[in-house]
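[Solved] Which block belongs to which protein?

Original post:
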Amino acid sequence: MSDQTGSISPQHTPVFLLTGFLGSGKTSLLSRLIHRPEFSDTAVIINEFGEVGLDHMLVDRSSDADIVLLDSGCLCCAMSGSLQHSLESLYYRRLRKEIPHFERIVIETSGLADPGAVINTIGGDPAIARRFRLAGVITTVDAIHGLDAIGAYREAAAQLAVADQIVLTKTDLLEDPAAAMDLRRELGTRNPHAEIQIGQALDAAGIRRLFTSAETRALEPASAHSGMRNPALGHIFKYGITAQTFHLRNPVSWPAYADWVHAMQRRHGASLLRAKGILRMEDGDFYAIHAVHHLFSPPLKLRRAVEGPQQGALVLITENLSREELEETVALLRG
């Protein structure tokens, strides 16, 4: 069960959002993953089975036609109706043991989707939030055309900006192999808070890493992963999308947190693409913070203390807001 702060419990199934612009290799990546044993305890929500080429892997269908069980053990769910309906359906079918048990859910979005809408659904619907939690956003970026898309389309820029994990795809098509490392560095500059992996090089360890929740990665030593590196760097995309990091070394009081949330909703809600962070509160515990636009999910209490640069780090990904404007509201957290 969850307490009023939304602390993580075994009943909260982690949900990973797999996003990426048109042609970025998102569906190809998913097609590879569903063959892997590391992915066998996963339910995948996709628009239609044909996009992923599953016919040769089908073992069984549930009594409901929109669920397919693959020979790898992975479940694929064709989204019929709303996302809320699909998540609720998976939850109750698992509870009734009509489908095999799964440990996580991966939602593949369309190439033109704003990831904020899906994040809002997971955190904003009370029934969904009681049973599921956003564990991370994975964004695929095409090594050939990805940077051009990010510069030309707001959706691509937003998909990159909110990523917790970036998968650089199609590196095998680059004429110069060294260009992949240059692209990786560029993406690290544009989103300094995401861990980056090369899609072609994904092995068992890389896949497990890809689907490790953001909260769990935050509990690791800073040297164990590349997330939160260069915390002071915020890159300005076209469309004015920035990622700014603020550090709060002292515990935050609950009244101060409530004042900050209210101020963010009132002043900057429309421009807030995503907020994420790890804050130490006045009760001495550490909490994961998540928000999209006006919607702030209940803080999730972590099971142990956070050390290193992740402690007290708050990342605000916004559109057309300066650091000075954000600092005015973050000051409320400092008391």
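(Second protein starts here: sequence line, then its structure tokens.)
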Amino acid sequence: MRLLAALLATSLIAAPALAGPDFAPAVEADYAAHLEKLFIDFHKNPELSFKETRTAAIMAKELRAVGGIEVTEKVGGTGVVGVMRNGSGPVVLVRADMDGLPLKEDSGVPWPSAVTQVDIDGVTKPVMHACGHDVHITAMIGTARQLAKMKDRWKGTIVFVVQPAEERIGGARKMLEDGLYTRFPKPDFAVAFHVTAGIPTGRLALEPGISSSSSDSVDITIHGVGTHGASPHQGKDPIVMGAEIVMALQTLVSREIAPLKPGVVTVGSFHSGFKHNIISDKADLQLTVRSDDEDTRKKLLEGIKRIAANVGRMNGLPEDRLPTVRVGFESTPVTLNDPELTRRVRGAFTSSFGENIMFFEEREGMGAEDFAYFIQKDLKVPGAYFVVGGTPQADIDAAKNGGKPVPAHHSPFFRIDPKPSVTLGTQAMTVAVLDLLKK
């Protein structure tokens, strides 16, 4: 079935959407008059996770300028919440993330970022919008501006959530902990989108079930015994233990997880020592762990703790000096699109844009998304997380034919085509909200 859907989508790649919402010209005009300048400003001035003070202030100002929106700042740190009421009816949460990434931009766009910022770890870093969050927040303002002019078409409440720190998968949880669902109207539905370089502009993707994997950052600290490099027998080498841990971790997915259950354990950082002939007394490893279900996630995290501890024991470390494993500081569960809400939003998209607007996107990796926190089962808030194409079809075709590759997200070369991305994102989100709040 998935292969059939993929083949069908491929056959439709070059086909244009058959229709568009009646307010599409208004969105195009708003982009030319207002949204383009806003996008460029966001792109040139990105900010790191939990440091998005300038961006948050602009978003609050823009939401207030729409009129009829109650705006609250500093929710969960730098988060912004705007509540637009229009009589009795359901409550829809519309979310956009706003943080950038610690990368030096080399995308070739005419308005690149050249800013640096002191990160929450105290280190000054270059900053770039290398994942399209500038599109998300610009489209949120576009959506708010359109919905404010169409109050005769909908009834209910819209909660605009400008979320910090998605890249550190912590902002959504911080906003919930700061009373997002108690201080403000609790949503009946939650919707969000991500612009994606891997699918063509003018196309949308939305499927029920798993949208994004879970993610857990893990820190392992190995407490060795330092000594001279010429006398290794007098110490306990944390680099050797770290290497043993790295290799043993590779067996977790291959030998402890069922073959049809996906999982990833990646060691992204390994630091120890300062000089050729000194055996260090400490090594630090940083991992990312991904899964598509809670049982697999639990098994992987428990396995990491078990391997780290027992490698220490195997090397003769005392119990009070075993490697320590830190988890839970950057984590998010699996993002699951509610089947019924997905069916409804897809129906709204195809009714407004035509059947050919939908693109089937095969998952090729295990990217994560902390929008999952807003739609956990215990909160009873169904969610739909859709995708907006960000790369012209011609560029995708050229890459497939041996031309310049389409830059990946989180790359210094990342770029999307802003006008079709922002305008379609605005139109699609407006269509979704109008359907969920229709009279």
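Accepted answer:
You had them paired correctly. Confirming on the second one: The radius of gyration is 24 Å.
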